[in-house]
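Quick start: what a row looks like.
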Amino acid sequence: MHLLLIIALCLHITAAVFWAGSTFTLSRLSAEACGSLVRPQLAAAVVTILTGAFLWNALHGAAVGKTEIVLGSGAVAALLALALQALLVWPSLRAARGAIAMSRPAHGRAGFANQLAAALLLVTTVSMAAARFL
C-alpha cells in the first residue's frame, strides 16, 4: 500500500503541475497557441482529479478537521477550474481549430475563462501547500 500511495502522489503532483502551469501560461497567450494543449490538459486534469480522490480516500477518509477543510476547498476550486475549461475554454479552441483565426468574442470568452481557471488552480495549489501545516 505504501508504494501505491507514493505512485499516486507522484502522478497527482506531476499532472497537477502540468495542468496548472499550462493553464497559467495559456491564460496569457493567443487562442492559436492554446489549441495543441487541449487534450494533454484534459488528460492531466482527469489524472489529477482521480489520483486526488484516491489519495483523499486513502489518507483522510471520513475525517473532518482543518486540514480536510482546506484540502476540500482546494479540491472544489480544482473541480470548478475543470468545469470552466471543459465548458468554455476547450470547446472554443476545438471549434477554432479549423478556422484561420478565432473571433474576438470567442477568444475573449475562452481567454477570460482560462484566466479564471488559472486563479482557481492557484487557490488549489496554495491550499495543498498550506494544508499540511494546519
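That is the whole record. Residues 2-131 form one domain. The first helix runs from residue 2 to 26.
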